[in-house]
UniProtKB/TrEMBL annotation:
Native organism taxonomy: Bacteria, Bacillati, Actinomycetota, Actinomycetes, Kitasatosporales
Any matching Pfam family: Cupin_2
InterPro entries: Cupin_2, RmlC-like_jellyroll, RmlC_Cupin_sf
Domain Cupin type-2: 22-74
Record-given protein name: Cupin domain-containing protein
Organism: Streptomyces doudnae
SUPFAM superfamilies per the UniProt record, alphabetical: RmlC-like cupins (SSF51182)
CDD domains named in the record: cupin_RmlC-like
Length: 175
């Protein structure tokens, strides 16, 4: 797994994750929700407390509401790399969950639900996210490849296009 965090200003945090077949550890956030855009391969999002697994294919988005324990897994066939772009709005925080909690077992036999047309809740940040997409369209962060740069621009534009000007509802996990 390779994480490239390259932008965190004004309450917007953008990262790129390249996944081989290692999963991002289970974690949750108290202050932000994870907005995920699949740019390569297939991303599986495990939400063990809800007993759900969701999958994304390239061009699809999903948002994990804050406080939900989750992890991201490469859902593509072995040997196929997957990539996702992560956007978070607000003050970043992360809380890793000890492996002893046995969360993986809660979703081990669960068939994944494919998410195709999800929406994301972008609060009142549409203009900021749009400006960020345009900025990255002409200026490549040093840590990114040109392909990753294109994925970031595409992801940010997708978040704007599918964005709802509201905070994510906390109660339910809905794709």
């Amino acid at each position: 797994m390779e994480m490239k965090e390259f932008y965190y200003q004004d309450g917007l945090r953008v990262s790129v994750f390249n996944l081989d077949h290692e999963a991002v550890p289970y974690h949750f956030h108290n202050e932000v929700s994870d907005m995920v855009y699949c740019s390569r391969g297939q991303i599986a999002i495990e939400l063990p407390e809800a007993g759900e697994v969701f999958t994304l294919h390239p061009g699809e988005v999903f948002q994990v509401p804050r406080t939900n324990k989750h992890r991201f897994v490469n859902g593509a066939p072995v040997g196929t790399h997957s990539r996702y772009v992560l956007l978070q709005i607000g003050a970043f925080d992360i809380n890793f969950v000890p492996p002893a909690e046995g969360l993986a077992e809660k979703v081990a036999d669960r068939e994944a639900t494919h998410v195709a047309d999800a929406e994301v809740y972008i609060e009142n940040r549409e203009g900021d996210i749009r400006k960020l997409a345009e900025h990255f369209a002409v200026e490549k962060p040093e840590v990114l490849t040109e392909e990753e740069q294109g994925d970031v621009v595409q992801a940010l534009r997708c978040f704007v296009d599918r964005g709802i000007a509201a905070e994510h509802p906390r109660a339910a996990v809905q794709p």
